[in-house]
Amino acid sequence: MDVPVTVSLDPTDALSAVPAAEARRARPVTGQLRFFYGPMDCGKSTLALQIDHNHSRQGRSGMLLVRQDRSGEPRISSRIGVTRQAIEVTDGDDLRELVRARWAEGHRVDYLIVDEAQFLSAVQVEQLAELADEVQVDVYCFGLVTDFRSRLFAGSRRLFELADELQAVQVEVLCWCGLPGRFNARVRAGRVMRAGDTVLVADTEQGGVDTVGEGAAESPEDTVRYQVLCRRHFRLGDLGPNVTQMGQLSLT
After folding, report:
1. C-alpha to C-alpha distances, 40 to 55, 137, 191, nearest whole angstrom
2. Residues 111 and 5 sit within 8 Å (Cβ to Cβ)
3. Angle in degrees, CA 130, 75, 129, rounded to 5
């Protein structure tokens, strides 16, 4: 004789927490705040311009913002030679007002591309989060995580705290020893600098110049550049056996 089995529904069952389709549709629509990060030379600016290209091809209207591009100009510039004009963000700018000004001109804003986002203030990152939440703007930020002392930039820290999505740029940058490089060492006269202004824009190319922070270089010994190192060689200040005073590695 079969005995009927009574199955009681457990209210703590994982499936019971899944909302009905109607409830999901009732959720507010928001934009997304994304942060793409990595060391110098990993292709962040190239990716920023590619994302802008892909969105604009689909008829979306965006704004390009930049904070202290390496070129010294209001533009997003990739080391592979692709550039786009952008709006230069300064310390006192309210990013919400920049978007409102574009609306006032009769233009739609579907997305924002923000390059060198590590230089934003924490308040400006919060403004980006507000634009994503309140007016459904998709925000794509690109930047470094740590400065030349290996400490978090204020903008990057706040992005890690608030972003919906964090994504390391997948183009791997290598230290001279062959290990993955994560640290952006500031180099002057062949030595790794451990003190100085947090913001100092130069490049990783030979003959990189100090364009922001401490004044223009007056001699080769004053020239500032950056070199990506692994943690060990960053700690040791070791630029490699074949490094020259004015450039990165001399490959022979």
Report:
1. 25, 27, 18
2. no
3. 10
How far is the C-alpha of 247 from the C-alpha of 225, rounded, in Å?
8
The residue among 179, 176, 184 whose CA lies nearest residue 37 is 184
Could you tell me the two tokens for 200? 């100092």
87-110 per-position pLDDT tens digit:
999 998 999 999 999 999 999 999
Structure tokens at 76: 């997003």
Give me the chain's average pLDDT, please.
82
Share of the chain above pLDDT 90, in %: 59
Amino acid at residue number 209: V
Tell me, what DSSP letter sits at residue 133?
Answer: H
Task: With H, G, I as helix, E, B as strand and everything else as coil, classify residue 87.
Answer: strand
Q: Find the catalytic residue in 73, 105, 116, 161.
A: 116
Is residue 97 annotated as part of the catalytic site, yes or no? no
- Long-range Cβ contacts of 159-164 (<8 Å, 24+ apart): 159/33, 159/35, 159/37, 159/117, 159/125, 160/35, 162/33, 162/125, 162/126, 162/129, 163/33, 163/34, 163/35, 164/32, 164/33, 164/34, 164/132
Q: What is the DSSP letter of 14?
A: G
